[in-house]
Amino acid sequence: MPRIAGVNIPDNKRLEIALTYIYGIGKSRSAEILKKTSLNGDKRAKFLSPSEINELKNVIEKLKIEGELRHEVTSNVKRLKEIGCYRGTRHARNLPARGQQTKTNSRTVRGNVRHTMTSGKRKLEKT
Question: Do 87 and 42 sit in the same domain of this protein?
Answer without folding.
Answer: no
